[in-house]
Design goal:
- Two copies of one chain form a homodimer.
- The first copy, chain A, is an alpha/beta fold and 332 residues long.
- Chain A has two domains: 6-120, 3-Layer(aba) Sandwich (Rossmann fold), CATH 3.40.50; 139-331, Rossmann fold (3-Layer(aba) Sandwich).
- Helix content of chain A is 35%, strand content 16%.
- Chain A contains twelve helices and eleven strands.
- In chain A, the strands form two sheets. In chain A, strands 7-8-6-9-10-11 form a six-stranded parallel β-sheet, sandwiched between helices. The first copy, chain A, has a five-stranded parallel β-sheet with strand order 2-1-3-4-5, sandwiched between helices.
- In chain A, α3 (77-88) links the parallel β3 and β4.
- Chain A binds chain B through residues 71-73, 98, 129-134, 189-195, 197-199, 222-223, 225-234, 236, 256-257, 259-260, 271, 274-275, 278-279, and chain B through 71-73, 98, 129-134, 189-195, 197-199, 222-223, 225-234, 236, 256-257, 259-260, 271, 274-275, 278-279.
Chain lengths: 332, 332
């Protein structure tokens, strides 16, 4: 386990979606966060006290979380320099980029000298096996999306909390760096060797017989030209009884692909059900979750109602309106 | 480059599909093969002289190729012992399993002591980037399949040869261990980190402006619960103008998944075209290639004719009847 509490890194980030790991921890593990570290050119705040590295350490932070994501996952010199600064004031460092902290010789050496630890959250488990798609016991729900970073993790966490509130056994199964940091475990599915995508998910959410639910965090989109392979293997490995579609109505282009439009929700839902049927013939959609954070409450309400009417499914913004309507449909 | 000539390993293999790398080299690089190494319990031969390790080395073999594949790609003790024996008589060792030769300390040490090399063909390139799906110049064809190991590599090689015979510039782009050993280069797409599947193929077959063709070897199947993620990313990365469907009419179950039936060719073709359209909206199917090696010539001919009539596409067995009909359709 990664020693808490945390100092959350924003650095020079100017991309609201790129800071989603720091933001996710600030929202879902707020009690474990002492502050945020950012430069003057970063326009964002997590509404935590702004601290230097030394101030963070003095406030009790045991780990600096480099909670920023960038397509491709490489570390720049500025990020490495800040990780060095954290180690020098006595903090461990955690990150979820494709490039491993421990593969940066300067960091590996310094951590060893200071008796500190480097946590590479995106390290996949060592002993993965290929998936097989055979029917297994248990209830599983998977969140899917029209694009990357449209709220699949938030939705999955909200559904888990809501199921538990109804007395139903429910476990969040994390598949991305932020979810893994929040849950304290999981499989970074985009970092496994390609042959093992579905097998990794079969291992993450194995057969269960307690009538409870595994709620599996989705990744990417079947319509994203960079990552659809991951989304496909995730669908097959999840063998989900139910899927929930996530979408950001304000997104104009696919994440990282300027000029490429998002698919329609209906088209995307149909494709996800078609692909999912390979390992879960009776899969059904139980709801749509929108990220309406940039809309007025009235516009958000109208958008949810319109989408629900159009698709014949419950539609909500989990952060704004809760997920009870989706849970009702799920348990109906 | 891996020093030729080769001694081809069959070992104790009793799975005709599992020896496809050794068989592929025996067929397509026969001049580079001096013999085969097998135990008495192996029922297969490549019609090469049977040799011990010492006899292989004495006959001039410079590399033992562990040309066998198993789902998951782990090495057993018997395989390691045979690799040791090869090193001890002075041969390099090449393999394409997920488990790396160099990660077996005994092999790494022995190779270093003897001044010999270990070749892990399944090592992906170091500097992959994520795909983007933007339109790029050039003609590309991808082979797809109803299952793993149904003849995609053979078909791709046959199409490359046939195009060249017509004076068309054409290059085989290998994506699997056997193809890479035959071609001397390529990308082992099932071994790349999941986020980089489509990006790896964009790098393997970049824009070309000479009016020639890249013929990309497909992997897996959209209907294979273990590997469909790889096949999906491959389709998106290939951005193929044309696809050719490969199928083994004698296959009763999906490779490695006893009890799971293969999809129909028509259903599989439709799904491949649907997925491919994300990055290649005008993609078209130009033929079906069957592996009829277990059928009589009459039955094979009838099967091809029936399939062609049913789908309205040229259908052939590349090894038996050539691929001219497919090339005609491709260039029409």
């Amino acid at each position: 386990m990664i020693p808490a509490p945390y100092l959350l890194y924003l650095g020079h980030s100017t991309d609201a979606v790129g800071i989603k790991t720091s933001r996710g921890l600030a929202v879902f593990r707020r009690d474990a966060c002492v502050g945020e570290f950012r430069y003057d050119d970063c326009p964002f705040t997590l509404d935590l006290p702004r601290m230097s590295m030394a101030e963070g350490a003095a406030a009790g932070a045991r780990t600096l979380v480099l909670g920023i994501a960038n397509s491709g996952g490489k570390m720049g010199d500025d990020l490495i320099a800040d990780a060095v600064a954290a180690l020098e004031v006595g903090m461990n460092v955690a990150a979820g980029l494709h490039q491993r902290l421990r593969d940066v010789p300067q960091l590996a050496l310094l951590a060893e000298q200071r008796g500190l630890q480097l946590f590479d959250v995106r390290d996949p488990p060592a002993d993965l096996v290929v998936g097989n798609g055979y029917a297994r016991a248990g209830h599983r729900l998977l969140t899917v999306g029209t694009d990357c970073s449209v709220g699949k993790m938030y939705t999955t966490l909200a559904l888990t909390t809501a199921l538990r509130a109804r007395g139903v056994a429910a476990d969040f199964r994390a598949t991305g760096q932020t979810g893994i940091l929040i849950a304290g475990g999981g499989v970074p599915v985009d970092a496994v060797v390609a042959d093992f995508i579905s097998g990794a998910i079969e291992q993450l959410a194995p057969a269960r017989n307690d009538d409870g639910w595994d709620l599996i965090e989705g990744q990417g989109s079947l319509f994203h030209p960079s990552f659809a392979g991951v989304s496909t293997g995730l669908l097959h490995g999840a063998q989900a009884e139910a899927i929930v579609m996530c979408h950001d109505p304000m997104r104009t282009d696919m994440r990282g692909i300027p000029g490429r439009a998002l698919p329609g929700i209906e088209e995307c839902l149909a494709m996800n059900l078609q692909v999912a049927r390979l390992t879960s013939p009776a899969v059904r959609a139980v709801g749509v979750c929108l990220n309406t954070s940039a809309m007025t409450p009235e516009a958000a309400r109208a958008q949810c109602d319109d989408t629900a009417a159009q698709l014949g499914l419950p539609c909500t913004d989990p952060m704004r309106f809760g997920v009870e309507s989706v849970i009702d449909r799920l348990l109906a």
